[in-house]
TrEMBL record:
This protein's UniProt keywords: ATP-binding, Kinase, Membrane, Nucleotide-binding, Serine/threonine-protein kinase, Transferase, Transmembrane, Transmembrane helix
Transmembrane annotation, as ranges: 347-364
Protein name: Unannotated protein
InterPro entries: Kinase-like_dom_sf, PASTA_dom, Prot_kinase_dom, Ser/Thr_kinase_AS
Keyword Nucleus listed: no
Domain Protein kinase, first and last residues per copy: 13-274
PROSITE patterns: PASTA, PROTEIN_KINASE_DOM, PROTEIN_KINASE_ST
Record GO terms (molecular function): ATP binding; protein serine/threonine kinase activity
Region annotation (Disordered) ranges: 299-338
Listed SMART domains: PASTA, S_TKc
PASTA domain segment(s): 367-433, 434-501, 502-568, 569-632
PANTHER family according to UniProt: MITOGEN-ACTIVATED PROTEIN KINASE KINASE KINASE 20-RELATED, SERINE_THREONINE-PROTEIN KINASE YBDM-RELATED
Length: 632
């Protein structure tokens, strides 16, 4: 992607300079012209914007970060598609002026135990907030840990994040490509799966580098390093450098175990153990809260919050009190001054109370604002899991049909994901009723008008009537609809009502005198059902049609039956000359003429031949008659 410096994104974000570029996106310093503040704008490379998988991953990063509200996580403020000027998918984040932990390590080398713990505690605090709502970062490394000018630690780049509101599961191949192999857990390399314990492994490797100044495994190729994590055990820090307290050494050794079950189960457990170790090492320091960041040297001194009692004391101590006099005049003046002092003390006390109330309201009370996580597409159970840790509740204000969002899942939230709401506030939800569908009523057998009136009661479009022939539905009545009765259809679907034109009439030709083969083929092709019988005929040759019913010359219903009588030939036969023919051949010749045969035998010859025929040879006889032959 070319440098977009100077462009106005989404009519709001003026790009000032390109700060960094990577394989997926470039990051710009920008000015939010609406709120007049500096922001960081992440813009996806244009060639990747055509790839749905990368676009989904980019949007997933926005949802992942927007679902979290924590002082140690880089806040996502906006996300969208720039349609004015250069088309671009963008993500707007808070501007962190400072450097990465990678840059800090490159400059400082390894850190002391005290300073290393100060880095790890806020990182674990941020990850704890993510793990509580089921979000796994999947790409913890020094490059994604930022240090502001004020010394605040922040986690960035939730681009590989996975959780109940984010959708999508990376494959083993994509995880190896997109993740950073030096910090990937063995299960991510082998199976492409990750949970909170995978983040613990990555932070354990980061801790190893913090205290030793180097990574546990080095290699010439990324795949070589990745499988070192699978096949080798990360050594104890104490085997590399001296002076590491045993509890800290053991904690990081467990965190980098190849077996996820041996690691702390999530960032909250890790943070608690690390806090106890820190308390043991520095007993004068208070137990550290998950919600506080730890100042990193050198830093500006962090202001302490004064109690209401101390504020009142300071204000009241600043009011002068006059010294007592013995004269009546001075006594009178002293009493008057005393009244002023009491009045001023009351004013000071009231001001202190107001300051305290305002501070409480803005910092921890209802006035504090919480970033609303993205809940579009989530179930109400998932919404509760995301909102409860933030102290927020939800309320369904409306249910709508949706073609994209399943029934019972969120279509819209008010405020939307990434917006802010008062602490303890209620996020209003619009819930999907699922896809809107209408069941087509039964219209078969109705008149077209009745069918149109029935379907017209639904928000559907009735197409022009379609007339068709039908052998079962009388002319002028509805056959059915398309789509058919009982089908569920969308609003606005076009419905065709099919109306019967009655039975189709087919021209019927007379086939009397024509061959039976021609008659059968043509009648069947026309759609008639043909039946055939055979009879003798003195006028038609064998195989010709003697008669047909219905007779030809008019029309008949398609599918009607046509009966043909086919000639078997003449009903008479002539007695053939059978003299001197073997008995068997003579009998067969007569049977072929449909004649009955009686055989009379004379003499004692073994081979018998015909010696006489009755009736005589050449006599015309009716088929079925009896012929007597004599053999001997």
């Amino acid at each position: 992607m070319s440098d977009l410096t100077g462009e106005l994104i989404d009519g709001r974000y003026q790009l000032i300079r390109q700060m960094a570029t990577g394989g997926m996106a470039s990051i710009y310093e920008a000015l939010d012209t609406r709120l007049d503040r500096k922001v960081a704008v992440k813009i996806m490379h244009s060639h990747l914007a055509q790839d749905e998988q990368f676009v989904e991953r980019f949007i997933r990063e926005a949802k992942a970060a927007a679902a979290l509200s924590h002082p140690n996580i880089v806040a996502v403020q906006d996300q969208g598609w720039n349609q004015n000027g250069t088309p671009a998918i963008f993500l707007v984040m808070e501007m962190i002026e400072g450097h990465t932990l990678r840059e800090y390590l490159n400059e400082q080398g390894s850190l002391s135990v005290k300073d290393g713990i100060k880095f790890l505690l806020p990182v674990m605090s941020a990850l704890s907030a993510a793990h509580k709502i089921g979000i796994v970062h999947r790409d913890i490394k020094p490059e994604n840990i930022l240090i502001s000018k004020e010394g605040r630690i922040k986690i960035a780049d939730f681009g590989l994040a996975k959780g109940p509101l984010l959708g999508g599961t990376m494959t083993a191949e994509s995880s190896v490509i997109l993740g950073s192999v030096s910090y990937l857990s063995p299960e991510q390399v082998q199976r492409g799966v990750a949970d909170s314990r995978s983040d613990i492994y990555s932070i354990g490797i980061t801790a190893f580098e913090l205290f030793t100044g180097k990574k546990p495994f080095e290699g010439d190729a990324p795949i070589q390093i990745a499988y070192m994590h699978v096949n080798n055990r990360v050594p104890k820090i104490s085997s590399v450098v001296a002076g590491i307290p045993e509890p800290l050494d053991d904690l990081i050794y467990r965190a980098t175990s190849s077996n996820p079950d041996e690691r702390p189960r999530d960032a909250t457990v890790f943070h608690e153990e690390l806090s106890r170790i820190n308390q043991t090492l520095s007993p004068k320091e208070n137990q550290l809260s998950l919600e506080l960041d730890i100042p990193i040297e050198p830093m500006r001194p962090k202001p302490t919050r004064k109690s209401l009692r101390s504020k009142v004391k300071e204000l009241t101590q600043s009011i002068p009190t006059p010294a007592p006099r013995e004269t009546t005049e001075e006594v009178r003046k002293r009493k008057k001054a005393s009244k002023r002092v009491r009045r001023n003390r009351k004013i000071a006390l009231a001001m202190a109370v107001i300051v305290g109330i305002v501070g409480w309201y803005v910092l921890v009370g209802p006035g504090s604002r919480v970033v609303v996580p993205s809940t579009v597409g989530a179930s109400q159970t998932e919404v509760s899991a995301a909102l409860d840790p933030l102290g927020l509740t939800s309320m369904v204000i409306e249910k709508q049909f949706s073609e994209e969002i399943p029934e019972g899942h969120v279509i819209q939230s008010i405020p939307e994901g990434g917006g802010r709401i008062d602490q303890g506030g209620t996020v209003k939800l619009v819930i999907s009723k699922g896809a809107e569908r209408f069941i087509l009523p039964a219209v078969a057998g109705l008149t077209p008008e009745a069918a149109q009136n029935l379907i017209g009661k639904l928000p559907l479009v009735i197409a022009p009537l379609a007339e068709e022939f039908s052998t079962t539905v009388p002319k002028g009545y509805v056959i059915d609809s398309n789509p058919p009765t009982g089908e569920k259809v969308k609003r606005g679907t076009s419905i065709i009502i099919r109306v019967s034109k009655g039975i189709e009439q087919i021209a019927l030709t007379s086939y009397v005198g024509k061959s039976s083969d021609q008659a059968l083929n043509e009648l069947q092709d026309a759609g008639f059902v043909v039946t055939s019988t055979y009879a003798y005929s003195e006028t038609r040759l064998a195989g010709e049609v003697v008669s047909q019913k219905p007779a030809g010359g008019g029309t008949a219903d398609k599918g009607a039956k046509v009966a043909l009588v086919i000639s078997k030939g003449t009903a008479y036969a002539y007695i053939p000359n059978l003299f001197s023919i073997d008995e068997a051949k003579a009998v067969q010749a007569l049977k072929d003429l449909d004649l009955k045969v009686v055989v009379k035998k004379i003499g004692k010859k073994s081979v018998k031949k015909v010696t006489n025929v009755s009736p005589k040879v050449g006599t015309k006889v009716k088929r079925g008659s009896t012929v007597t032959i004599t053999v001997g």
